[in-house]
Write a structure and sequence with these properties.
By secondary structure, the protein is of the alpha/beta class. Helix content is 33%, strand content 23%. The chain is globular and about 70 Å long.
Length: 526
C-alpha cells in the first residue's frame, strides 16, 4: 500500500470521529492499532517523530521469555513472554528467527546451576520451545564460541531464544494495520486534548512537516508514548486543574540501556554469548546481528527523557571491561562502529529500588476523563499488551467489546510464506530477507542492482519512500535500513546519495545535514 504523505494528510483532514486514536508509534502503540483494526474498529495512530524512533528501535534485538525474570521468580511473566515469542516468530518469520545462546562457565558450579534454570525455561516453553537446552564440555563450548577466552573454561550451557529486527518489525505492524483500514501518520504531534462533558472527545495535532493543525474526534484515546506517557497524562490532568485536578504521580522510571557494536570477528560465531551475572550482577550479551556484534546492555537510571540520549562513560567502560573478561580479544573504544542508547519505560516504584529491581511488566490505567495509558512491558509481549489495552477500553465503556485473539494468527506484511520459510532455501540475500514476500516488488524498482553498500540498494531507498513512510535520511538509514546502528561512519558517507533519492521520491527536505550530525553522535564515545 503506497504511503504518499499528501494522501495520508488528506485522509487526516477528513471530518470524522474515530473509534480509537492511539498516541505513540512504538511497539506498544502499533500493537494496539493493529489489534483494534483487526477487530474492525476505525483507528488513527499519531506519532510525533518516526515510527519506532524511540525505545522500539534500540532493543538488544532479542525476542525472549526473559531468563533474568526467571531468576527473579516471575514465572507468570516468563510464561506469557515465551508464548508470545512463539507467536511473533510464526507471524513474522522474515523478521524474527530462533538463535542459540551459549553461557560459558569458568567455575565448577556455573554450568549445573544455570543449566537447571534453563531446563526450567524449556519446560515453561513447552511445545513453544525453540530447541533443547544442553550441556557443553570445554571443547564444545570453545567450538560454539571460537573466540571465547579458553583459560579456565570448564564448559557451558546452550539454550535457545529468538532474535529480530525491531525497527523493521515496527514497520511491518504499521503496514499491516494500514491494510486493515487504520490510518497511521508519523511526524504528527498531539498538541492538546478535546473534551465534552468532562470526557475526552478527541485531540488536536500538528503536522511537523507542513505546520498544518488538525482537530480529530475520537470515542477513545490511548496514550502509548513509552517513556513519555507522563507528558500526555500531565496534559490531561492540567485540563481539569481548574476543577480541582491534582498533579499526577509519574508512572515511569526510565532506565538507560547502552549497546556497543563492533566487528563480528570478536566472537566469530552464529551463536550468541550470554553472561547471566557479571561483576555487578547485570546480564551481558554478545549477539551477532546483521553481520556485526552487539555488546550490551546496561541498566542505569536516567532522569531526563532525551530523544537521543548519550551513553555515560562508566557504561561504556562496563561493557568493554566485561566483554574483555570473556573474549580472547578484548574490544576497545577504537573498535566501536556505532554506539546507541535506549530508554526503557520501567514502572516506577515508591521505594527507591534500582532499575534492575523495577518491574518489566506493563500497566494499563484510565483517568477520570477517559484517557487510557499503557506503559512498561517489552517488545516480545507487545501483542498481549494490546489485548489488555482493548479489554480495559471495553471495560470502561469507551469501545465496543469485540472478540479478542484476532492477531494470534495474523501474518504481518511480508510474511506470506509458508511456516518453513527460509531465506537460504530460496536464494534470498540477507538484505532481501527482511522484505520477505515483498522481495519481488523491491527487485522491480529502479536501482535494484545499484548497491550503495553491502545490503543497501537504491531500490531499497525508493521502496522505503513509496511503501514504508520514510521521509528523511534518518528514517532510511536508522530504521528502514539499520546502517546507522551497524556502522555510523559508513551511514554518514551514504547520506548524500540517500538524500538525493528521497528528494526525488517525496519532494520533501530529507534533512541530510541533521542526519550527519546524528551519525557523529553515534560515534561519540565518552
Amino acid at each position: 500500500m503506497p504511503t504518499r504523505r499528501a494522501d495520508l494528510m488528506a485522509r487526516l483532514a477528513v471530518d470524522r470521529v474515530y473509534d480509537l486514536v492511539v498516541v505513540g508509534g512504538g511497539a506498544t502503540g502499533l500493537g494496539v492499532a493493529l489489534d483494534a483494526a483487526a477487530r474492525g474498529l476505525s483507528v488513527l495512530l499519531l506519532e510525533s517523530h518516526d515510527f519506532a524512533k524511540g525505545t522500539s528501535s534500540r532493543a538488544t534485538k532479542l525476542v525472549h521469555g526473559g531468563v533474568r525474570y526467571l531468576a527473579q521468580g516471575n514465572i507468570s511473566l516468563v510464561r506469557e513472554a515465551l508464548h508470545e515469542r512463539s507467536t511473533l516468530l510464526r507471524n513474522a518469520p522474515h523478521l524474527a528467527q530462533s538463535l542459540a545462546f551459549v553461557v560459558p562457565s569458568y567455575r565448577w558450579w556455573e554450568a549445573p546451576f544455570y543449566g537447571i534454570g534453563l531446563t526450567l525455561y524449556d519446560l515453561l516453553a513447552g511445545k513453544a520451545g525453540l530447541g533443547k537446552t544442553r550441556f557443553l564440555g570445554a571443547e564444545a563450548t570453545a567450538k560454539a564460541l571460537p573466540n571465547v577466552r579458553r583459560e579456565g573454561l570448564k564448559g557451558g550451557v546452550q539454550y535457545w531464544d529468538g532474535q529480530f529486527n525491531d525497527a523493521r518489525l515496527a514497520l511491518a505492524l504499521t503496514r499491516t494495520a494500514a491494510t486493515r483500514g487504520a490510518l497511521l501518520v508519523n511526524y504528527c504531534a498531539v498538541t492538546g486534548l478535546l473534551y465534552e462533558g468532562g470526557k475526552i472527545s478527541g485531540l488536536q495535532a500538528r503536522d511537523s512537516i507542513s505546520g498544518q493543525t488538525y482537530r480529530i474526534g475520537s470515542r477513545c484515546v490511548v496514550n502509548a508514548c513509552g517513556v513519555w506517557v507522563d507528558a500526555l497524562r500531565a496534559m490531561d490532568s492540567a485540563a481539569h486543574s481548574a476543577g480541582g485536578g491534582r498533579a499526577i504521580q509519574p508512572l515511569v522510571a526510565p532506565s538507560q540501556g547502552v549497546h556497543i557494536v563492533v566487528e563480528r570477528s570478536f566472537l566469530d560465531s552464529d551463536r550468541a554469548l550470554m553472561v547471566p551475572k557479571t561483576s555487578d550482577g547485570r546480564v551481558l550479551f554478545a549477539v551477532p546481528w546483521l553481520g556485526r556484534l552487539i555488546l550490551g546492555t546496561t541498566d542505569t537510571p536516567r532522569h531526563d527523557l532525551a530523544r537521543e540520549p548519550l551513553p555515560f562513560a562508566d557504561e561504556v567502560d562496563f561493557i568493554l571491561r566485561e566483554s574483555g573478561r570473556y573474549l580472547l580479544r578484548a574490544p576497545g573504544r577504537d573498535d566501536i562502529k556505532s554506539i546507541w542508547v535506549g530508554l526503557r519505560p520501567l514502572l516506577k516504584s515508591q521505594h527507591g529500588e534500582s532499575t534492575k529491581a523495577l518491574s518489566r511488566e506493563h500497566t494499563v490505567i484510565a483517568s477520570r476523563s477517559g484517557l487510557v495509558t499503557v506503559t512498561g512491558g517489552k517488545w516480545t509481549t507487545y501483542r498481549a499488551m494490546a489485548e489488555d489495552v482493548l479489554e480495559t477500553c471495553a471495560d470502561k465503556g469507551l469501545l465496543e467489546r469485540r472478540p479478542a485473539g484476532q492477531t494470534v494468527d495474523l501474518r504481518l506484511v511480508g510474511a506470506q510464506f509458508g511456516p518453513e520459510f527460509s531465506p537460504v532455501s530460496i536464494g534470498m540475500s540477507e538484505g532481501a530477507h527482511s522484505y520477505g514476500s515483498e522481495a519481488a516488488l523491491l527487485q522491480a524498482l529502479p536501482g535494484a542492482y545499484v548497491w550503495l553498500a553491502d545490503g543497501l540498494s537504491e531500490a531499497m531507498v525508493r521502496f522505503a519512500a513509496r511503501y514504508e513512510y520514510a521521509l528523511t535520511v534518518e528514517d532510511m538509514l536508522a530504521r528502514r535500513s539499520r546502517m546507522l546502528f551497524l556502522d555510523a561512519r559508513l551511514a554518514a558517507q551514504l547520506a548524500p546519495r540517500v538524500a538525493e533519492i528521497l528528494l526525488e521520491e517525496t519532494g520533501l527536505d530529507p534533512q541530510e545535514r541533521e542526519f550527519t550530525q546524528l551519525a557523529a553522535q553515534y560515534l561519540q564515545i565518552p
